[in-house]
Amino acid sequence: MAAPPRAKPKPAARMPAKNVRPFMQALHDHWPDAKTELVYKDPYTLLVSVVLSAQTTDAAVNRATGPLFTAAPTPAAMVALGEAGLSGHIKSIGLWQAKARAVIALSKLLIEQHGGEVPHDREALEALPGVGRKTANVVLNVAFGEATIAVDTHLFRLGNRTGLAPGATPRAVEDALLKRIPKDMLMHAHHWLILHGRYICKARTPECWRCNAAPWCGFQPKTPPPAEPQPAVKRPSPKPRGRITAAEIEEP
User: Fold this and answer.
1) Does a structural domain hold residue 209?
2) Which of the following is catalytic: 18, 41, 152, 239?
3) For this structure, is 29 an active site residue?
4) CB 149 within 8 Å of CB 190
5) Which of 38, 175, 232, 233 is most buried when burial is the number of CB atoms within 10 A of its CB?
6) Could you tell me the residue range of the domain that residue 88 belongs to?
């Protein structure tokens, strides 16, 4: 008999303020060493990696940037490599043509306007080609130690699904997260949330049964654990038609 259809999830109500700290603490306990999964060497290679990561997995970016950063670890080396040379390294990732143009253009601007260094300034970062608020927040947090929140698809989903920071736009979710998350947790909150969204609170089906933050989460109904697979019933092979098997031959 088929299982009854699962109830459609309801939009989560705003998480009560008393639940925010224990919810975030549960994420910290599960991901105590959370950090970016992008492989980088310095602020410049981090910046390039984040630009390349748009609509692409971190794993795919890392496979491309390993050889790329050996060939072009600095803005000057990247400009010398050129758009065609860069493209040869990143054709395996999505939107590689536009990303190649952006990386070469931002590398030129870093040389012309910032002495080849990545600026520790939001406005200057967002003025670089291919760099928006989310990318700037990642660089400010990871490279420069600022307590910023970069809202990607995972954080946007978690903010709304859990009730932690409901919002209609990424900026609305970011502002709500900055306001609601305790100040002493802000530095690493982005990484706790992104890893939780990537591996547990997944887009298609959140794995609530193994989420240690579930008691404080507003998502309903919680996803139950998957059913145990039933052992297959072994059926006897059918006898061939029109033929007599050895077992059917009676002894005289």
Assistant:
1) yes
2) 152
3) no
4) yes
5) 38
6) 43-142
